[in-house]
Design a protein that fits this description.
There is one protein chain. By secondary structure, this protein is mostly helical. It is 52% helix and 10% strand. It has 7 helices and 3 strands. A 3-stranded antiparallel beta sheet has the order 1-3-2. Strand 2 and strand 3 form a beta hairpin. It is globular, with a radius of gyration of 19 Å.
């Protein structure tokens, strides 16, 4: 925690939020992640901790051809949202998850349940609801 104070003295920055979450402090609400941020976080959760170069290699293997600056932008956003904790190791920065994958998955499931409640969905109505969905045309995948 001491190194974070050397970087920034504001308690509202992403580094502090991430450190607070890591230490189990309450009060930090999980923010929404974009689809790209979810892809980056999924890879970091698989690896445990990772630097930019290693992350780029793993993302490329999965078909994501993002440029290093693009992935760096995602990492900064994830730090600011409190999902990652950055650690300096020499000239590199290693990113470690500040939020467990299971916690994020639980949050997504709760959002889905809330959506269903607000839409008036109850189990057993699948046939009635899906009958109104438009058919996908073959040329649109």
């Amino acid at each position: 925690m001491m190194s974070i104070h050397k970087i920034c003295m504001k308690r509202t920055c992403g580094l502090h939020k991430a450190a607070d979450k890591k230490e189990g402090r309450k009060g930090m609400e999980l923010q929404e992640l974009s689809r790209c941020e979810q892809i980056v976080m999924a890879e970091i959760w698989r690896q445990g901790s990772v630097d930019l170069r290693t992350l780029l290699v793993h993302l490329l293997r999965k078909g994501n051809e993002w440029k290093p600056q693009t992935v760096s932008t995602f990492l900064v956003r994830l730090v600011n949202k409190g999902y990652l904790i950055p650690h300096r190791q020499g000239r590199n920065t290693v990113y470690e998850p500040a939020v467990a994958c299971s916690l994020y998955a639980d949050r997504l499931m709760e959002q889905y349940r809330e959506f269903c409640r607000n839409a008036g969905y109850t189990p057993g109505q699948e046939g009635r609801d899906t009958a109104r969905l438009p058919e996908r045309r073959a040329d649109h995948g």
